[in-house]
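Reading a protein record of the kind used here takes little practice once its layout is understood. An example of such a record is reproduced below.
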Amino acid sequence: MDLKPYGDRGLLLAELSDAQRTACLNRLAQALPAGCEEYVVGYDSILLLGPSIACDQQFKASIRSFVAYPLVNAPEPDFPRSHFAHSRKHIFEVYYNGADLEWVAQACNLSIEQVIELHSAPVYTVRMMGFSPGFPYLEGLDPRLQLERRASPRNRIAPGAVAIGGSHAGIYTVASPGGWHLLGHTDFPLFDLEAARHAHANAQEVFALSPSDQVRFQPKEIR
């Protein structure tokens, strides 16, 4: 782990191992350390923000104590044991009628039914969120479905589109351009724009998902 000042009010916890990242997220979910007002989760880093933490040596020392063995919570039905003590569980119904479903099946030398089965079988973990508000990068995609992103991104993808790109699955939360392969869609809203307009709204009121949450996809009949 490397601690780096990030501007005048940030401290970047960089080059975290998975175990260190898990331990930090577990403890941050319990309580923010004194001096830290908020944090942002990256793929292998965590950015802590506060008025005077960037160069505070005592704060840096206290952060190192955060990095200990990860906590483990009890398993729940339909979900395996998670290393994240505060991981929430979500099941999203998916209509597998995406524009790229047939192409993905051909590219992977699979049937459409096999693509759906392989995509809906895993329990995914939200590694981080970004690109657009609340867009989840989901770890756990079956290697047989891992493809390079589209050579030519689409100009507009509708919110709720369920897609794959590289080693991740994802869900588009707002209308936006995108280069991932579209397998289907879900009607469950992942981003609440009206809630986001309120100054005192918290993240769970605005976003359906948070880093470390677990996600499963449940196939629904194509309408």
Q: What stands out?
A: The chain has two domains: 2-64, 89-220. Helices lie at 18-30, 57-64, 101-107, 112-120, 193-196, 203-206. The mean pLDDT is 85. The chain has six helices and 13 strands.
